[in-house]
Amino acid sequence: MKSSRIVLILFWVVALVQLTVATSQLWRSEWTLRKGKAYKFKTAPVDPYDAFRGRYVALAFEQREAPWEGEARARRGDSAYAVLSEDADGFARVARLTPERPESGDYFRVKTGYSSKSNHVSFSFSFDRFYMEERKATEAERVYRENSRNTYAVVRVRDGVGVIEDLFVGDKPIRELATTARRPLP
Amino acid sequence: MNKKALRWLYAELPTLVSSGVVSPEVAERIRKHYSEPEAQGSGRHWLITLFAIIGAALIGGGIILLLAHNWEELTRPMRAAISVAPLLLTQALGAWVLWKRAESTAWREGVGTSLTLAIGSSIALIAQTYNLGGTFPDFMFAWTLLALPVAYLLRATLPALLYLVGVTIWSGSVMDEGSKSLWFWPLVGVALPYLWMTARENRYHPRPLLVCWVLSIVGAIGAGFGAHRLLDEFSWWTVLFGGLFAVWWLVGSRWYGEASRVWQRPFQIVGGLGLWVMSLVLTFSDPWEEVSRHVWWGHMHHNPAEWIGALVWPVAAVALWVAAWRRREVSELLLGAMPVLAVIGQALAVHDMEVAAAVLFNVYVLVVAVTLIASGVKVQRLGIINAGMLLLSALILCRFFDADLGFVARGIAFILIGTGFLVTNLVLLRRKGAAQ
Lengths: 186, 436
Description:
heterodimer; A: 186 residues; alpha+beta; 5-stranded antiparallel beta sheet; globular; B: 436 residues; mainly alpha
């Protein structure tokens, strides 16, 4: 009887750990979406074969490298912070990459890639997909590909976390375009 | 009825009869009273468990598919709540099962399976709701590790099997990340106490046997993942897999030697078949030519853990072989010696004696087959004789395909071997019948 009570208590502890780990991303993302500042990131065309995955639009971003501000050279696959700024048109730019957590401004974590001669380092965002309803995803992918010079993602940023809020083609959310495109033309 | 108490009662009955406490008739009536209802119910009991697992898996899968549709009509917080709901629900069910239905295998297995699936679906659906990136190996790693305690606490076997398959998939997905795949072994290690827990009372029970079957298969796959960089460079697969299958074979013969059915010998079957197939492949000279193009040792610049992960198998096989020596089971020892021959073959091949290596394995397979047939005849076991004949025919057919022979010659060989099989079986069956 006593051992079965211990098993039950252990089960609740395990359940709590499972819940905490599984939902840790949920709280952080929801908090970021509610309180974070919105940045517009220009996206780039993606390889069409790689892009079609059925349920989401695969994203690539226009900016692929930024100046490196670390004492040691950046190693491939390391984690770094991307410090953000905005250009004259209101689009976001990664102003610099640094290995230490910046003390001010908006930033989020990225993975570093190769270093170039001019002390620039390539990087990859932690977010690279935009999920949609399964029937719309294929259509959305087509719309996105055909207008890929004119697309951007709105990313909310706070406390080192970046979460995609929406994907725009021109000035319209891709969800709306994917719906209207399915209607027969008059 | 408590099984332990029953076992105690059965052990006690002969003493009670001999000391005159109960009469032999009463003892027989007691046995009938307890054993028969259990024997009748046990088939149905397994069927119910099976249906509980299938039902749980189907419902769980259905819910995941429904949610994966990514309903846009729902608000984001609502979708987030729905993503967590299956996890919360199955956790609550798990606690209820532990509280009220702890003795029901069907409940424990069914709820354990759905809880395992719910953990994965919650992580995946939250990632989908918030458009999180994340890599597949990280997802598999978190899922499998979070799900393993379910197997232990609910004493459920299917979650343990899912765990073993999960860590194998994870190990395969990190193959290009240096020697990370080697973490497969510690990850399998943390599931071994579960095997011990279930095998402690009766190692021939379906529960530990199922774990052993899955373990013997994923173990061979995981060993390949962990050593793939060494294998690419040195072509050591003969020694690595020869060692691994020999360990399976010898471990099985040692700890599962008294099994009465074929399905009760997981390690022997997987190990034995692995050794057979490998030995037959090595009777051809092409694999040895491939070996001879590689270096014997090369540069030792690999992670020491990779070397250990690969060499531990042949070393353990030799140790087990020496331990098996005192039992003097010729067929057991012969098959278990395969990794030693692989090392010799490897040495011959790198010194440009590929044909000698292939000849060595031809002789080896022939000796194994003939020994099997002879020992089968000695103990009058048709199964062993047929196994030996199967191996012998496979060897002959391999040589026929090797040599550039026409269809007529091959056809005649097939007919001769088939006739041999039929005649031997007929003769032996008739002899057995006459003896009885």
